[in-house]
Amino acid sequence: MGIGVRFDIRRKMKILGSLIFLVIVVSVAGIWYLLQSGGNLAPDFSLIDLEEDTFRLSEFRGRVVVLDFMATWCGPCRLQMAHFRPVWEKYGSRIVLISIDVDPRESVEVLRAFAEQFPYATWIWARDTANLAEAYQVTAIPKTVIIDRNGYIRFTHTGVTEAATLMQEIGQLMS
pLDDT tens across 61-75, in order? Predict the structure, then answer.
């Protein structure tokens, strides 16, 4: 084998190695982008809050939205309220927090009486009249869903979610 042939093979191997490296970099960048753009688009919905005002999830695009699927008889849901308090005190109107009662047997009056037990909880309260429990795959409560400014679900957790976890997730989406 001559020197010219060896040099040609080395050159082709370098080019092939560079192409493989480039494909890997582009693939990693693409995966990273998809992960950063969020998961699934949050199903839009329309509900009536305790003040009898109708609102749509899509109205809150541009803001981080926290959905709290709960029921008034649920002990862990009551515990979750204590974890929402520091979140609400820190972010307040810069986020949208919506507690949604998923028990169809509970009336507006029952939900209102529950909400009044938490005077700091001045966020949106509503009953699930749009079958959101199914749309958001609520199999147990409380379930917390955090939606980014573009309307994509970025975090879900079933069970009590610690305030520190909520603030970390929200903080990442706010920056």
Answer: 999 999 999 999 999
CATH number belonging to domain 46-174 = 3.40.30.10
CA-wise closest residue to 130 among 51, 56, 53: 56
Closest C-alpha among 122, 123, 120, 168 to residue 146: 168
Read off the pLDDT of residues 112-140 as tens digits, 9 standing for 90 and up.
999 999 999 999 999 999 999 999 999 99
- Taking the whole predicted model, whether its pTM rises above 0.90 is answered as no
CA distances in angstroms from 137 to 42, 110, 141, 156, listed in the order given: 11, 24, 11, 10
Residue type, 21: F
Which residues, in sequence order, are CB contacts of 90 under 8 Å at separation 6+?
167
| End-to-end Cα spacing for the chain | 60
Give the residue extent of every domain in the chain.
1-36, 46-174
